[in-house]
Write a structure and sequence with these properties.
Helices cover 46% and strands 15% of the residues. It is α+β, with helices and mostly antiparallel strands. The longest helix has 19 residues.
């Protein structure tokens, strides 16, 4: 789908690619995020890129995504697109990336048999486990480039074995870490207790929601988080993607290898064959929440779920890579499922359009579903 140019897009294109001629711009599909706009760019020489611009003062999302893409690329827990150009302080703020390798999971999944869908979901579980292996000392919101790094950076410096007792001398590790921080591949993280981060997420969802019909849901879920503060405070802190959906994942290998965890035995690597894009909601948080959200966005509808074999495959892939599900997953999962309902409640008008169902009916169903989830906590 060819899209019309606009002044913000033109300004960002001129800043990001001042010496390149653009042949056409294309749409990237529907989005419920009104803070950004993303277009595909085809240059006159045939090269392609994707350009994301901030339409509101949410430029922090651009800064976050640029920082996380560079961090993940430098320390390689999972494959990510290359950053071609970025200016989080620009007018407009923008981020340009190279196309992701492979094919969008959405199309691959829709065309796949049930058995192939299970194999794909195991690979998605594996890529989440690979990402979540990057642990931090505290939870927090990523706001841009800085000096904070997780265990992936330390393992990278020490040949993958810092935590287990490396033969690399301590001074050499510290020197190499300092050099990497200076090369702008670290993160700036505003640390905060995990329950406070969840409460801030609830408030941001309230701000960007497109319907007030279920405004009381925000307060009900916030009360649930506060009531379970001690349970949530003990969660591990890992690098999370924050928005695992089929359009945000690309299948980079054919999956024909016998090892379902994604190990490329010929190359001696642990490539899960899935590349995530769209990292603007990435943060340092509880890996259990990322897994709950991924399962919901990949497999569930408004208030229904699919066959149990599919979430089981996602979790199996996670276990194969990580050795188990995130610590405390089953205990904290009900809280995160209540939080997930706000993605329905705050956008019930858009859900009505998407499902082609009366909004009043969806409001009643959402009320019943949220109460069931709160009762399960």
């Amino acid at each position: 789908m060819v899209v019309a140019d606009s002044k913000p897009i033109s300004m960002a294109l001129d800043a990001a690619f001042p010496d390149r001629s653009v042949e056409r711009l294309t749409g990237v599909g529907p989005s419920w995020n009104g803070a950004n706009e993303t277009v595909g760019v085809t240059f006159a020489d045939g090269d392609r890129a994707f350009l994301k611009i901030a339409l509101t003062d949410e430029s922090r999302r651009i800064a976050r995504e640029r920082a996380v893409l560079r961090y993940v690329d430098a320390h390689r827990p999972v494959p990510v697109p290359e950053v071609l150009a970025a200016d989080p302080d620009g007018d407009p703020a923008y981020l340009a990336t190279a196309p992701a390798r492979g094919r969008e999971l959405l199309g691959v999944y829709e065309a796949a048999s049930d058995g192939d869908r299970e194999r794909l979901l195991r690979r998605v579980g594996g890529v989440l486990a690979a990402l979540h292996a990057d642990r931090f000392g505290r939870h927090g919101e990523i706001v841009g480039v800085g000096t904070e790094t997780g265990t992936a950076a330390q393992s990278d410096v020490a040949g993958g074995d810092v935590a287990g007792g490396s033969t690399v001398e301590e001074g050499a590790v510290e020197s190499d870490l300092a050099e990497r921080r200076d090369s702008a591949t670290g993160l700036s993280v505003e640390f905060a207790p995990w329950p406070d981060g969840l409460l801030a997420t609830i408030e941001r969802t309230r701000e960007i929601g497109t319907s007030e019909r279920l405004a009381g849901h925000y307060d009900a879920v916030a009360d649930c988080v506060r009531a379970n503060r001690d349970l949530l405070s003990g969660a591990p802190a890992a690098l999370l993607h924050g928005d695992v959906t089929k359009p945000n994942l690309f299948v980079t290998t054919d999956g024909s290898d016998a090892n379902r965890t994604g190990t490329d035995e010929a190359a001696g690597t642990r490539d899960p064959g899935i590349a995530p894009i769209d990292w603007e909601l990435s943060h340092v948080g509880d890996p259990a929440r990322d897994l709950v959200r991924a399962e919901d966005q990949l497999l569930n509808s408004f208030d229904s779920t699919g066959p149990d074999r599919f979430p089981a495959a996602l979790r199996e892939g996670y276990r194969e890579r990580a050795g188990g599900l995130p610590a405390g997953f089953e205990r904290r999962r009900p809280v995160y499922e209540a939080v997930r309902m706000l993605g329905r409640s705050g956008f019930v008008d858009q859900w009505a359009t998407y499902l082609d169902e009366p909004v009043d009916e969806l409001v009643e169903r959402a009320d019943r579903e949220l109460q069931a989830r709160l009762d399960a906590v």
